[in-house]
């Protein structure tokens, strides 16, 4: 089997799908969350107090940035209080009955964590939990290569994650396959994305760099019609899984 040709075909298809993220956003639609952020939330909280906060796959607003920032705070808290349980959730197939049950149970286990702004959209819940777990395990930026695994190796990672994500919607499968490729090619830049303040210029710049330096995954430019909140959630999910896979691969090579 010509591995190089196979990988090129897979990545080419992924790039075509992810580059048309406007279609993904259109199919996902706007999502409204009925629990508004609290009055003491950070930036933009005043403007969304007593209103329904919205996260739209197609665009960002100061209100949506503030809402997702609150969700990130929940993810960080949950990762700290329920580390092993959260690890189990992220290890289970996405959109499975097990995941759905455990996400509800997690809220009971970490009831002291503020759930302000938390949505029941599972891809976003996975994203904030994955970022919380990744940042907890890596309080400071780890030493990561500017270019990650070699092509045959990161294709193995993508194939494994495709199996974990087989229950997701077609749109979400497209997104996660693309971000799996992005973080496997440029883990250091993906780490930088997750260390920026959500909604900041630094975040936007890091996301642009991720696409530019891993252009074979999804083209050289970040799609304009794609919410940074949604993109960050998928990058976090991919980064958490990639670093676990990479550590296991290194450990196995030493045995």
UniProtKB/TrEMBL annotation:
Ranges of biased composition (kind: Low complexity): 36-47
Top-level taxonomic group: Bacteria
Keywords for this protein: Signal
Disordered: annotated segments: 35-60
Signal peptide start and end residues: 1-25
Name of the protein in its database record: Uncharacterized protein
Species the sequence originates in: Hephaestia caeni
Origin organism lineage: Bacteria, Pseudomonadati, Pseudomonadota, Alphaproteobacteria, Sphingomonadales
């Amino acid at each position: 089997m010509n591995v190089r040709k196979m990988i090129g075909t897979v990545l080419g298809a992924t790039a075509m799908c992810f580059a048309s993220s406007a279609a993904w956003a259109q199919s996902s639609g706007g999502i409204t969350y009925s629990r508004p952020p609290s009055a003491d939330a950070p930036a933009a909280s005043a403007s969304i107090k007593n209103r329904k906060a919205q996260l739209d796959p197609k665009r960002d607003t100061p209100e949506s940035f503030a809402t997702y920032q609150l969700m990130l705070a929940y993810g960080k808290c949950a990762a700290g209080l329920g580390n092993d349980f959260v690890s189990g959730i992220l290890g289970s197939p996405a959109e499975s009955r097990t995941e759905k049950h455990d996400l509800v149970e997690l809220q009971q286990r970490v009831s002291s964590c503020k759930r302000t702004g938390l949505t029941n959209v599972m891809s976003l819940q996975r994203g904030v939990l994955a970022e919380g777990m990744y940042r907890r395990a890596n309080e400071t930026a780890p030493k990561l290569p500017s270019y990650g695994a070699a092509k045959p190796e990161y294709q193995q990672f993508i194939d494994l994650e495709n199996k974990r994500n087989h229950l997701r919607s077609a749109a979400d499968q497209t997104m996660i396959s693309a971000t799996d490729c992005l973080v496997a090619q440029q883990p250091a830049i993906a780490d930088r994305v997750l260390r920026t303040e959500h909604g900041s210029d630094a975040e936007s710049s890091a996301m642009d760099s991720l696409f530019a330096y891993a252009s074979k995954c999804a083209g050289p430019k970040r799609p304009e019609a794609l919410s940074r909140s949604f993109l960050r959630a998928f990058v976090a999910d991919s980064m958490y899984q990639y670093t676990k896979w990479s550590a296991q691969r290194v450990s196995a090579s030493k045995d």
